[in-house]
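INTERNAL AUDIT FORM
Audit reference: QA-55
Scope: verify that the stored structure record matches its stored sequence.
Auditor: D.O.
Record contents follow.
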Amino acid sequence: MKTFLGIIHILLCIALSGVVLLQQRKQGGFSGIFGGGTQADMGGSQWQRFTGLTKITVVLTGLFMVTSIILVLY
């Protein structure tokens, strides 16, 4: 079981790296990280404004974290 989870974890890592590299670069630099938005921007429709690659990145990141925790605990 641990071997199977390790293989899944490696495949998730490769897929996540590929999806991150496929995304377009934003020209804002660090300005979007530290401020630049208000609480009004974080409404319930945030998920619908994400692009397809961003949604895939969020899902793969979540799965990667779950498999990481499972591998540590198992």
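Auditor finding: record pair retrieved intact. The CA atoms of residues 19 and 57 lie 6 Å apart.
Action required: none
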